Amino acid sequence: MRQSAKSKTEGQKPRGRGIHPALFYSMFAVLLGGNALLGTALLMAPDISRLLGGQNDMVLSAYEDRLAQMRVEIDRLHSRNYAQAGDMNLQLQELSAQQEVLLEQHQLVRALVTKADQLGLAAVAAPEASDMDLSMVTTLDGNPDVEATAATVTQMMDETQQAMTGIALAATERTENIVTELGKLGIELDLPDAQFAGMGGPLLAANDAAATSPMIEDANAVMDALLIYKAARDSLSFAPVHMPITGNFRQSSGYGNRKDPFTGNRAFHSGLDFAAPTGTSVLSAADGVVSFVGEKSGYGKVVEVTHGNGLFTRYAHLSAYIAKEGQQVHTGTPIAKVGSTGRSTGPHLHFEVHRGENSIDPKPFLDTGKRILAMLG
Question: Which CATH code for domain 250-363?
Answer without folding.
Answer: 2.70.70.10
